[in-house]
Amino acid sequence: MKIEQRFPAETDREAAIGVFDSGIGGLTVVKALMERLPFEHIHYFGDTARVPYGIKSVQTIQSFSAQIADFLLERRVKMLVVACNTMAAVAGDLIKKRSGVPVLDVIAAGADAAVAATRKRAIGIIGTPTTINSNAYARAIHALDGQVRVYSQACPLFVPLVEEGWLDHPVTRLTAEEYLKPVFVESVDTLVLGCTHYPLLKPLLQDVVGGSMHLIDSALTVAEEAARLLQSNGMENTSRQTPEYRFFVTDIPLRFQALGSRFLGRDLPLVQTVSLPG
Amino acid sequence: MKIEQRFPAETDREAAIGVFDSGIGGLTVVKALMERLPFEHIHYFGDTARVPYGIKSVQTIQSFSAQIADFLLERRVKMLVVACNTMAAVAGDLIKKRSGVPVLDVIAAGADAAVAATRKRAIGIIGTPTTINSNAYARAIHALDGQVRVYSQACPLFVPLVEEGWLDHPVTRLTAEEYLKPVFVESVDTLVLGCTHYPLLKPLLQDVVGGSMHLIDSALTVAEEAARLLQSNGMENTSRQTPEYRFFVTDIPLRFQALGSRFLGRDLPLVQTVSLPG
User: Fold this and answer.
1) I want to staple B140 with a disulfide (CB 3.0 to 4.6 A). Which of A192, B8, B93, B111 is the partner?
2) How confident is the model over B162-203, as pLDDT tens digits?
3) Would you give the end-to-end CA distance of chain A in angstroms?
């Protein structure tokens, strides 16, 4: 049963949407938000100095996530979108408790879309080891429909393969076949891409799993959910100005612009480097 | 021309060797030190909360490296070994300036061994993107012999493949063939494994490049250099007690014990979690 989130009375509908991520994979969510909500300001935070989160402990991820939520809340965003599946999986509740504004996350949105899509009531989930071990997708799906069977598979090599740019490479295909073998055995008809990097592998994955498998892209589904929540609460930005996009990161590593542009699907504007405590 | 490093007059020869790394890959260096210097105490620091460094900026790596050096120096180690190639490449000089004790690093040791091994005076280097982009191996090699030709290749997928445990897997073989194609074209006879993770791929890599290629394992070479420096300065621990091994990390992620044991080549003892500022 979903509890509808509410906006505080004093919310400024022209305030930005705050999107946050452990690195730059969350730019796939920004891309989906830009296309679905083209008049909304977006402030993005990527913790590029400490990425990746998918291999860190729950305690560390929670502590880092709280710092980032605070940074964006201080910038008076009207809504938070947790773009990183790993953060959503292990720190989603903590962020919701900390925040006075609605918090959307890729896991809740992906679970909704998957339950709506499956005909056989059997869903596969792929993600980082931490996301999969958290069992957060299975919990979100079973909260919606206790009869759905869920099969999970960690795919730790997909993130580095995407970052290497091997989006349609024999190595990536062989890796996908290896990881998805256990999923094939089960008769799932819907596969959730439970990591912000995976939408870039969608063509290859669709090819590996066959055209009849429904792939759930959580970037698209969370953007859809954001649009629905803003509209149902009368909180869309109704000004028709060109929106402001701000990008904050904790580090600007090698190949950052090239990689960021790949995720964002367009040239990445200038980013600003900031420090977080601890 | 190598400048021999000196120990301060007050050095306690029973003090530990401090080994530091961005994560747990440096345990391959600890393994080599344990075997080469079985009476030395070793204090290891792995920055597992912020690993991997190979994708971060030079400035961030320098700042993190300085924090770790200070942590180990406060523990009064008699010598520092920088096990991480990326740290050695971009923060080696900074650490040497900061430290009153001798500082050995995997790059200097690997360059020495490679120059001694090559007959054709043509050396290949493989490592993380940051290590390769730093050009630190080429500089270290040319400081020893300006006539040697150096060919470098970044192999960003090798670290995640090792961490996935695919040490002898078709995906790893295909990846190695792809990365090493440009090295094959050149007539190198010596290949430096310029990353602490790569020794675990040695059998597969030897197979891919052929048995006549000389592989330089920088964990072994830096342990050899540590032994030489301690002996030539009369700084070996001459007590015949069982040495003390301490392992400090900034995070204990999933599969840490299993992965650590794989690098160390034996059961990983209990580790202690510590926090660093910033």
Assistant:
1) B111
2) 999 999 999 999 999 999 988 877 789 999 999 999 999 999
3) 37
Q: In angstroms, what separates the C-alpha of B133 from chain A's closest C-alpha?
A: 9
Of all residues in chain B, the one with the smallest CA distance to A63 is B49
Residue type, A89: A
> Which residues from chain B sit within 8 angstroms of residue A253, using beta carbons?
55-57, 60
Structure confidence by residue, pLDDT tens digits, A109-168: 999 999 999 999 999 999 988 889 889 999 999 999 999 999 999 999 999 999 999 999
- What CATH number has the domain spanning A17-105+221-273? 3.40.50.1860
B contacts of A255 (beta carbons < 8 Å): 129
Helix (H) or strand (E) segment spanning residue B272: strand B272-273
CA A49 to chain B, closest CA, distance in angstroms equals: 6
What residue spans in chain A does CATH classification 3.40.50.1860 cover? 17-105+221-273, 108-218
The pTM for the full model equals 0.87
- For domain A108-218, the question of CATH label 3.40.50.1860 is answered with yes
Kindly report the three-state secondary structure assignment for every residue of B96-153: HHHCCCCEEEHHHHHHHHHHHHCCCCEEEEEECHHHHHHCHHHHHHHHHCCCCEEEEE
Tens digits of residue pLDDT in B104-124: 999 999 999 999 999 999 999
Given a cut of 60, is residue A241 above it in pLDDT? Answer: yes
